[in-house]
Amino acid sequence: MSSRNRQQRQIRGPQSALTDFLASHNISANQIRLDADARRRAAEADGDGAAPPQDAQATTASAAEPANENEDDTVAALPARGQRAAARLGQERRQKEQDVIDKIKSGKKKTSKRKSKDDDSDDDYELAKALSNAARPPGQSDNCAVCGKRFTVTAYSRNAPDGGLLCTPCGRELAKDDAVPKKKPKRLGNVEGRRQVQSKILDGTYHTGAKSLMTLCIETLAKNIDLADDISGLPSLVVDKIARKLSKHRLLDPNTLNLFIQPTVDELAIYDGAKLSADEYIRVIQTCPELKKLKIFNGIHFKDEVMDYLLSRHIELEDFHLHGANLLSDSKWQEFFQKKGRSLQSLKVSWTDKHFTNAALVVLKDTCPSLVRLKVMHNQSVSGDGIKGIARMPSLRHVSLDLRQTVHSDIYVDLVNRLSENLETLSLTRVANVDNTLLDAIHNKCRRLKKLRITDSEIMTDEGFYRLFTGWTNKGLEFVDFQNCRQLESMQPRLNPDGVGLCSKGFVALMAHSSRSLKFLNVQGCRHITRQGFEEAFGPDKVYPELVKLEISFCEEVTDFIVGSIFRSCPKLHELNVFGCMKVKDVRVPRGKILVGVPNAMGMVIDGDDV
Amino acid sequence: MASRLSRDEDVGDLPPTNVARNASKTYQWGGQKHGKNPATTIPDSDDLSDSDLSEPPDELVSDSSVGSLQGYIGTDDDDDDDDDEYDPTLPPRRDARDADEDDDITGIDDDDNDNQNDDEDEALDLLTVRGATANRRAYRRPRHKKRSMNDRERLLSNHPELKTLWTDLASQPILKAGKAEQPKSIKRQLKGFQLEGLAWMKAMEQTEWKGGLLGDEMGLGKTIQAVSLIMSDFPAKKPTLVLVPPVALMQWMTEIESYTDGTLKTLVVHGTNAKSKNLTVKDIKKYHVIIMSYNSLESMYRKQEKGFKRKEGIFKEESVIHQTTFHRAILDEAHSIKTRTTMTAKACFALKVDYRWCLSGTPLQNRIGEFFSLVRFLNIRPFACYMCKDCPCSNIEWGMNSDNRCNHCNHGGMRHVSVFNQELLNPIQKFGNSGPGKAAFKNLRTMTDRIMLRRLKKDHTNAMELPVKEINVERQFFGEEENDFANSIMTNGQRRFDTYVATGVMLNNYANIFGLIMQMRQVANHPDLILKKNSEGGQNVLVCNICDEPAEDAIRSRCKHDFCRVCVKTYLQSSVEPECPQCHIPLAIDLEQPEMEQDEVSVKKTSIINRIKMENWTSSSKIELLVHELHKLRSNHASHKSIIFSQFTTMLQLIEWRLRRAGITTVMLDGSMTPAQRQASINHFMTNVDVECFLVSLKAGGVALNLTEASRVFIVDPWWNPAAEWQSADRCHRIGQSRPCTITRLCIEDSVESRMVLLQEKKTNMINSTINSDDAAMESLSPEDLQFLFRGS
Questions:
Q1: B81, B245 contact by CB (below 8 A)
Q2: Bias regions of kind Acidic residues — which residues (chain B) (predicted)?
């Protein structure tokens, strides 16, 4: 280099005519180059500490010169005016050079993309390469300046805007919008959060905005329940909420149970008795002599000995709900009714295996004169004889049955005929072989019915449902559940010549009859309700002012349009279930409504935010 | 049938004596009804000429169709096999097939993985083979009765004990041992019937058979009874060997530890356990209990018997386990050796053991022939023996030298008959439940009464304090588009099926037929199972295991799960001891690794989720049915945990993704996981309240799991074999469960599934009539069953 400085007047070798010319005007190309190097080093100082190797610099130098020569043709025309002018020119030059580099860089982008060098940009390319790629020789691995990943440095690796090298993806990103630094990969907040939100919507407990203070407190308490000593001062509603929360977290055990059993309580709900033993139940009965309402879920250890103890105490239960106590024998049940039946108003028994039998139900009529509500669910033993027993209890207003034994329609008809006067709730779950005669009986007799559930009937026909709801003098129903009342036929599933199940006609009649009062409707799986049926029921002139929850899953004919119509017709609607409605694809959900079960990848629940 | 005829013609050219032989050979085809081809493995009722052995005497299956079926299994049936112990240095597992003794469908069992319940195998046994033999029977009945009579007489003269075999057995009283005392070294209080079981087991060890079969229904605590038995004569001089399915390795280990407080020194022999490397007999003797999986044992035995290929040739390595003499061998889920020609079964037979025990909740899954394998393992003489018709030679092995002559008496191999087949199998197959068949049934029960103790849950609910179990079938129908798709496959399949029937080559093409059925079953789950089998047309992007979106900047953890770099970074920061969100072992991941290449090839190997196009994806009726059921379970006062079984891992992946998108937290268990991963996943499910669903591949987790935290079981696709379904249902309905259990079988009514459910019921009848000492009508499946699947009539 020094030799070049000395031989200023001779043009030869690597020294170009331009350099020579500039030198004659007291402008040093070397100086320009050194300046450029210094700037670059300053920029790289904080990035990658490693100094560029010497030979790289040499190539930079040799490469820089022809580039200068090339680009500065116009500048060269300027006359030289002494030192100051030269200095000013130098500055302009630097400015120019920077611009050119920028230009080159963008040019390089093209070349690197195309991987072919144009002849005219050849020099530019080399310069750019020299300027930008001095840090690492190709073939070595480095960490990317932006994303921090390891990558292999190639001749095409790019400089980061603030020093260091970029991996190929980041470089490509940078190339896209050159000046703009690579934006962070998008990710909205906490991803675990999304699943949790979905989960809450699924629970129906999702609220936008902050939770109420009470909810927060209950949640905190449930989380730290082992620290709580006493919750006796709290209102019963709150205690119930805590109990629910605990059971949901499966935290109810002999220790936490103590919080709920106080001598003064008259209402106790054990939502998950799975971890409690017979001794705990005895303790409950011991400590709560005032008990009126007792509700136990998963109470497998509520055995004969517990019942014996209960019978020996002066507890007069009014409301007894026992779930999953299948070790309690039938004779104990009968004994219970005989001794404690007088005060009993509500009895719910579920999951009892074969131990809650017809005999127990027959005993009921003589022993529980004030019984209003009776619910026997998931029972494998009760059959027609037991129902005949129920039919002779005129006090009953609410009857819910879910029996695994097949019972003939006539017995249900008899039940309806005898109890119809007071009957408000009739719930018959999984009655596959019950036919239209039951519907006709309801039509003829029932005048006070509010809740009607008949599910899984394979025989009832559309005509039967139509007859039921046409000209029925009963007031509008509030709760209707006809799920899976449909034809079960595997050979010709699409045809339904006999109109088996709830189809369009019956559906329209139902909606017309109960339009004012209906709050809850479930027609899941009634797959022969046609599009026209839905469109008629939810037409522009129809309003269902009270409807809150609607379940139309597995109704094939439901389309986006029908879902839209439903939202229009049901101002109070909170939740609409459309599982398995394959024709629902892309619906706009109004604000405050929830659409559950759209069969795509959107997430299960769409919470409306459309106005 | 055409092939059958041609065979007869072939033989017709032979000298007259051979014709006679052939006649009796046809007689013997009845033996095949039970699928595992006793005709070739065991010379039961007659004398196949030696020359016949050289060619596969079974024309049910042409080699090519086996091959194609095998390929079929490899690709379509998903990777449920527990191949965690697969040794790449070994030749592919076709050994059993290579031997010419094994040329029918049993080969499939081996290839896939012999201790798995092989779906295809069973279905085929069930349908085709039975159908075939049922038809064949018509051909052969009356001829040459005399000849077989003569044979019988000779046999009896050489083995007079056979005459009084059953009366002798019946005169032995059924062992009633009363109740044992609670063993002091067992920390848990045993229930009454468990103590009875223990006493019975101890008493059985004193009898000549030195062991037996504990056939208690699932969930009655077979494990604790077995552990108590081990403790009953602790410390024994020699160790005890426990063989289990891979999924239960860790569970046995922990149960032994918790019951005995670590008194027993236990070793888990598994490829991933460093201690089990380079074991010597001496090492083994230091332990009290050795636990290993059937697969490991099979692999060791194979190395010893067949050797393994290296560059320099075939090496053989002596199996340490087979060198060691054990005090006691316990086969958990003993139906794993139900096919006695498999290497696994042979490996078990070859063990040197003083006392032998089988534990199985479902000792009989498909055929009565399966029972033979257990009898053989238990060395129940003389029932497991082969007897020579020409001399008093009687041996447990049917060993032949190179001339196909018996190693002992040097009479022709085919002159030996299996007592079990002769006395039990053949009459039952030939006559069903009437005449001699009925007598054989009675005899079978006489035998099972004496070697097996079986208690049913329904008899002990009160003692076990078991909650109620309810089994439901949820039925739904296809949506319109799905229906079109299913119909196109169905009609296509039906046409081909009809062609096969018309040309009389149905049985030659069973692999194809089976392929059709398989497709129809997959369609019922989700069309993507067929459409997205390959990566074409999908989005082919890796999906992050944390956010369930296409992974941005995908990186992979050591346990081979993919994440967005950002997701996993935040995830790592948010917890102290991060575990993999997918398999729940401690998470090890290099955050600075280069982004993963997302090419089609690499994506194809991973989950089906990576192959679908998310934005256009539509669910299926089956999946929605499941999601809807789960949605209904949501309640503000209870959290229900569910186990979801499917036999297609792709289906599980789809379900998992759908559920996660829907806000339901899930855990998955499939055959590709290591024991540590399995255990971690199980623990995660059992201890974490928020985890609602446990997705389990039926083959990998259908047995031996104890998941009492769950109270719901969903069986996504019906299974050929009802016993496998009961097994899976009983993962949660077992001792320790305190919530009512619901088993829900999901069924698409207008698909092939509704018919499979009906077929299952037929099978159930067979099982009930033998094992459960129930005289329900013994119904055998007819060839019409296959047609029923297609035509529904």
A1: no
A2: 44-61, 75-87, 98-124
Contact A68, A94 (CB under 8 A): no
Q: Quick check: A380 and B592 CB within 8 A?
A: no
Residues paired with B309 in a beta bridge = B314
Minimum CA–CA partner of B552 in chain A: A185
Smallest CA–CA distance, residue B648 to chain A, in Å, is: 20
Measured distance CA(A376)–CA(A371) in Å, rounded: 13
Cα–Cα distance measured from residue B68 to residue B422, given in angstroms and rounded to the nearest whole number: 34
**Interface contact flag, B468 A326, Cβ < 8 Å:** yes
Which residue in B620, B637, B640, B642 sits closest to B714, CA to CA?
B642
Query: What sign does the CA torsion over B140, B144, B147, B148 have?
Result: positive
CB contact under 8 A, A353 and B615: no
**pLDDT, position B499:** 75
What SS3 string covers A222-279? HHCHHHCCCCCCCCHHHHHHHHHHHHHCCCCCHHHHCCCCCCCCCEEEECCHHHCCHH
C-alpha A481: how far from its chain's center?
26
Q: Token pair of B678, please?
A: 């399995």
Residue B467 with chain A: CB contacts under 8 Å: 298, 300, 324, 326, 351
* Pairwise pLDDT comparison (A201 vs A226), residue with the higher score: A226
Yes or no: say if A360 and A337 are a contact pair by the CB < 8 Å rule.
yes
Q: What is the 3-state secondary structure (H, E, C) of B363-379?
A: CCCCCCHHHHHHHHHHC
Contacts of B476 in chain A (CB under 8 A): 525, 554, 580
Task: Among B627, B639, B735, pick the best mutation site for testing chain A contact (most A Cβ within 10 A).
Answer: B627
Select from B475, B574, B663 the Cβ nearest to the Cβ of A198. Answer: B663
Residue B113 backbone dihedrals phi, psi, to 5 degrees: 165, 115
CA–CA min distance A341, chain B (Å)? 26
Half-sphere exposure of B585 (CA within 13 A, CB side): 15
The H or E element that residue B192 is part of is: helix B192-206
CB contact under 8 A, B618 and A151: no
pLDDT, residue A410, reads 92
pLDDT, position B766 = 59
pLDDT along chain B (793 residues), means of 10: 38 36 35 36 36 34 33 33 36 36 31 37 42 42 60 79 80 79 81 87 87 83 88 84 86 85 85 79 87 89 83 80 89 84 88 90 70 85 80 76 76 79 77 73 80 80 79 86 83 74 64 74 85 63 79 84 86 83 86 76 66 79 90 86 90 88 85 84 88 87 78 86 75 85 88 78 61 39 47 44
**Tokens 């539509």 found at:** B618
Q: Which of B733, B459, B462, B741 is nearest to A305 (CA)?
A: B462
Give the residue from chain A lying closest to B625, CA to CA.
A580
A522 pLDDT more than 90: yes
Which amino acid, one-letter code, is at A46? D
Report DSSP letters for B232-289, one per residue: HTPSPSS-EEEEE-GGGHHHHHHHHHHHHTT-S-EEEE-TT-GGGTT--HHHHHH-SE
Are the beta carbons of B706 and B656 closer than 8 angstroms?
A: no
Spell out which residues of chain B touch residue A298, defining contact as CB-CB under 8 Å.
467, 738-740
Task: Answer whether A323 sits within 8 Å of B689, measured CB to CB.
Answer: no
Q: Which of B471, B570, B611, B661 to mutate to test the interface with A (most CBs of A within 10 A)?
A: B661
Closest chain B C-alpha to A266 CA, distance in angstroms: 20
Is the pTM of the predicted complex or chain greater than 0.80?
no
For residue B235, say if its preceding peptide bond is cis, omega within 30 degrees of 0.
yes
What is the three-class DSSP state of B196?
A: helix
Read off the tokens for B566: 């950002």
